[in-house]
From TrEMBL, chains A, B:
It comes from Flexivirga oryzae. This is AcrR family transcriptional regulator. Residues 17-77 form the HTH tetR-type domain. It comes from the Bacteria. One of its GO terms (molecular function) is DNA-binding transcription factor activity.
Amino acid sequence: MSTKSTPVKRRPGGRSARVQDAVYSAVGELMATKRPDQITVPMVAELAGVNPTSVYRRWGDVDALLEEVAVAVFTREDEKLPDTGSLSGDLGAWAGSIAEDIVRPHRTRYLRAMVNARDGVLASGCPCWNARREQLAEMISRARTRGEEAPSVEQVLDHVIAPLYHHVVFAMPIDRTYAERLVADVLSMRQRERV
Amino acid sequence: MSTKSTPVKRRPGGRSARVQDAVYSAVGELMATKRPDQITVPMVAELAGVNPTSVYRRWGDVDALLEEVAVAVFTREDEKLPDTGSLSGDLGAWAGSIAEDIVRPHRTRYLRAMVNARDGVLASGCPCWNARREQLAEMISRARTRGEEAPSVEQVLDHVIAPLYHHVVFAMPIDRTYAERLVADVLSMRQRERV
C-alpha cells in the first residue's frame, strides 16, 4: 500500500483508510498508462478490489476522484523548500524542481485530469495553487527579513507557476533553464502596488 | 453553413468543403453543451449528416478533429489589432479582449479540448500560439519604430498569454483588469538579453 499520496482531507481511519489507499493506488496505476477521460469508476474499483458503489458513494464521480488524487499528489508534505540565502537562488531552485517534476508523464496526466475536472466548475480556483502559495509566502518573507526587494506572492504565481503549468498542459517544452528565465523576469519586475 | 471558422489548412473545394463546413458546425454545436471527452465521431457525423467513415478517413480520430476546429476558432482572420499609439495601450486592449473572449463557455471548452488533444503529444507546441506570436510581433515592432522600449514577443507570451490561458483552463477567474495587470507587469520587466 502506498503512503506517498498524503490525502488532503483528514485521513480517515480503519477500513475507510484502507479503501482510500487502495483507490488512490489504483488511480495512480491507471494514470501511468491512460488518459484521464479513459478512466472509469468500475475500472478503478476493480483494480482497487472494492465495490464500485463504495467509490460512487464516497467520491461521487470519477472526475471528483481524479481531482482529489491529483491535489494529494501536488500537495505532498515531503517537499523541502530551498534555503540558499537569496530569493533569486531560492526561487530558481524551487521553480526548477517544479519544472522537472511536472514534465514527468504521470504528473502531466494529473495536471490534465485537473483541467478536465474543471469543466462545469465556475472560477473556483485550482486547489493545487494553495500549496504553492504557502511555499512562496515563506520564501518571500525570509527574503524581506534579509532586507531583499521581493515581488508579491501573486506575481510569482502569475509569472512563474502559471506559465510552467500552461506549457505542460498544452505540451510545450519546459526545463530548468526556462523556469530560471521566468524567475529572472519576475525578479526584474516592478512590484505591484498592493502586495 | 457557417463561415465563421476559417480552416487552417487550405480550404478544399466542392463536396469536400461542404463536408468540412458541416462537420465544423456540428463540432461547434456539440461544444456548446458538451465536454470534449463526451464528443464522439458518430455523434459529430450524425449531426453533420455525413458518414462516420468520412470523418475517420479525413480526421483520424475525434481528438484530431476537435483540435483542428479549436485552432480554426482561435486563429480567425477577422480580429483587428488595436493601434492606440502606445505599446501599453495596444497590449492592454489586446490582452483585455483575449481575456473576455476566452472566458466565454464554448471558448473555454475549446481550450480544454486542446489540452485533451495534447495527451501523448510530446512538446510539440500549441498551434494557437502562432497567431498570437504574429500579432505581438506587429505591435512590438510598431512600438520600437516609435522609439518605445519593448519586451520581447516571448516575454509577452510567457507572462500575459500563458497566465490567461492557464487561469481559464484551470477555472480561475480572469477579467480585463487582471489582463491589464499582467501587461503592466511585463512592461516593467527587464528585457531578456536575446530578443
